[in-house]
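To: structure subgroup
Subject: Chain for Friday's discussion

All,

I'm putting the inputs and outputs inline so they're searchable in the archive.
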Amino acid sequence: MRLAREQDASAIEMLIRISARVLQSSHYSEAQIDGAIGSVFAVDHQLLSDHTYFVAEHKEQIVGCGGWSRRKTLFGGDAMKTGIDNELDPKRDSARIRAFFVHPRWARRGIGRAILQRCEKAIRLAGFRSVELVATLTGVPFYGACSYSQSNRFEVPLPNGLTLPVVRMIKQF
């Protein structure tokens, strides 16, 4: 595992597409996944610039990715941003867990959990006392098993006119 670099962006985008099409298909339609790829399911280059995004590699191939953020954005790639992504105050705000994807051939081998643990350690070191995320329906059981509590469910509008049901989740340290 290592910090992602800007030159990893295209490989991460490819991983996101493969992961979403296979692992999200049990909860979302093909049309929903198509609408989410490139918007909700996409690289946020701010995470790469902030050095808070990790990749897991096997033989120089990225097989997992995920990160955390000290910025207001909760989810989505660059295309979803509409303004300045201000920094959060660790004394009153929750850090963010962002953009976790694992290659289907590497799913359920502990990659996501290892990245999450690395993120949570960095979040605590940055002084945050809580963390929140927006989970896909597929991700809810994973985050629940890692002590995240469900807050509320909502629908994210997609560029193709559909919506993507997601769940906001929170964890206190």
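Points worth raising on Friday:
The chain is about 30% helix and 30% strand.
The chain has a mean pLDDT of 94.

D.
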